[in-house]
Amino acid sequence: MSKNNPGFSTLAIHAGAQPDPTTGARATPIYQTTSFVFQDADHAAALFGLQQFGNIYTRIMNPTQAVLEERVAALEGGTAALAVASGHAAQLLVFHTIMRPGDNFIAARRLYGGSINQFGHAFKSFDWQVRWADPAEPSSFENQIDERTRGIFIESLANPGGTFVDIAAIAEVAKKHGLPLIVDNTMASPYLIRPLEHGADIVVHSLTKFMGGHGNSMGGVIVDGGTFDWSKSGNYPMLSEPRPEYGGVVLHATFGNFAFAIACRVLGLRDFGPAISPFNAFLILTGIETLPLRMQRHCDNALAVAKWLKAHPKISWVNYAGLEDDPNHALQRRYSPKGAGSVFTFGVKGGYDAGKAFVEGLELFSHLANIGDTRSLVIHPASTTHRQLSEEQLVAAGAGPDVVRLSIGIEDVGDIIGDLEQSLAKI
Ligand SMILES: Cc1ncc(COP(=O)(O)O)c(C=O)c1O
């Protein structure tokens, strides 16, 4: 370890945290308070006017949340971060900061079903339009850009298909057109991929998944890469025009390379209110301390399971980028050489009915709508997480009717395979 350039595992444990100055507590305390006492009236005025940083009210900022933000920013290599109540809240605040009514953004077609729903339906009420593109084809993003386009959104490793995306190629399109590239890095986590190093400008996460890692707390985060020039074209007035509610402050001019994170906090989180609870921030921080260990074990277990399934006579196909003959293997080797992640899909021979019987026959696996838990999880996306989608969208999202999705946990791999084996034997 070098003091000036600590390694990833060191940052996962230490970034943002120090012993509590009052009590000496070594673990980050849960600051379970709604509000913070001002030193005097001038101090209060400076905090409210953005002339001084400091805690006012937990909807906007809280010391436990601040340690989480600093830690995730360090792990992703960003300039600043904002932790919020969920991954969906993070996405809402990102788009609220860059979009005006009538604007559009281009998003990869292969995304978590809830994101497809949020972008395609809920965002309509703000008059924000999404245009869908093929993540394997950067030109399909470029072809849809017009003068009202304000950003590009992809998942680094797509849920549920477990497919990797050529982030650098899509970043090139974004840069050519002066647009920010926003990457949802939930499935990979910064242990596997750091999208900012490949040209992304903003990273979002559902912290609910691998970052927290134990299936016990909702959370989300926005990481500001500090690279995008928000002042250039006048297309991002939230950042480039004076803010009347803050005495005419221009956020980009005042906060420079962390202005985006500030804007999401003081204009989005403040007014929409999806704050993360200090208790959840504490649990997620604790989870992040073991992220490198867990993530490697998730990947190693998933590869062993994928190989085993691939050789099984009752399995029709396995889609795991870690398998050498997988069409996505080259991209995985390039972007995520430590492993192909924990989540992947496969088909049981016999289609929908056999898949359903297989899911119901599992005992160690939990049948539920989550990923990124220590426990092994299973779901049938077409009837659950992706059920709002049309048949065509289902196939495009990698969630067709026969698809079973696994999120491989960190139990003993022999027990995971044993459970799959006993369930397959019953079909
Ligand atoms: C890749 C991805 N992004 C975003 C989300 C949304 O996160 P949350 O459920 O924390 O709102 C999910 C949830 O499953 C996800 O899998």
Please state the CA-atom Rg, rounded to the nearest Å. 22 Å
> Strand order of the main beta sheet, please?
1-9-8-7-4-2-3
CATH class of the largest domain: Alpha Beta
Distance between the termini: 52 Å
CATH superfamily of the largest domain: Type I PLP-dependent aspartate aminotransferase-like (Major domain)
Structural class call reads alpha/beta
CATH topology of the largest domain: Aspartate Aminotransferase, domain 2
> From the 3D coordinates, which CATH architecture of the largest domain would you assign?
3-Layer(aba) Sandwich
**Bound small molecules, deduplicated:** pyridoxal-5'-phosphate
Mean pLDDT: 95
Spans of at least 5 consecutive residues with low confidence: none
Helix content: 25-40%
Briefly summarize what is shown.
With 427 residues, this protein is α/β, with parallel strands linked by helices.
Task: Write up this protein.
It is built from 17 helices and 14 strands. The model has no long low-confidence stretch (mean pLDDT 95). It has helices spanning 8-14, 41-48, 63-76, 87-98, 113-120, 138-142, 167-176, 189-192, 237-240, 251-255, 259-272, 278-288, 291-310, 329-335, 351-361, 391-396, 413-426; strands spanning 80-84, 104-108, 129-133, 149-155, 157-158, 163-164, 181-184, 202-206, 220-224, 315-319, 343-348, 366-367, 377-379, 403-407. Helices cover 37% and strands 14% of the residues. Residues 86-88, 112, 114-115, 155, 159, 184, 186-187, 206, 208, 218, 220, 371 line the site of pyridoxal-5'-phosphate (PLP).
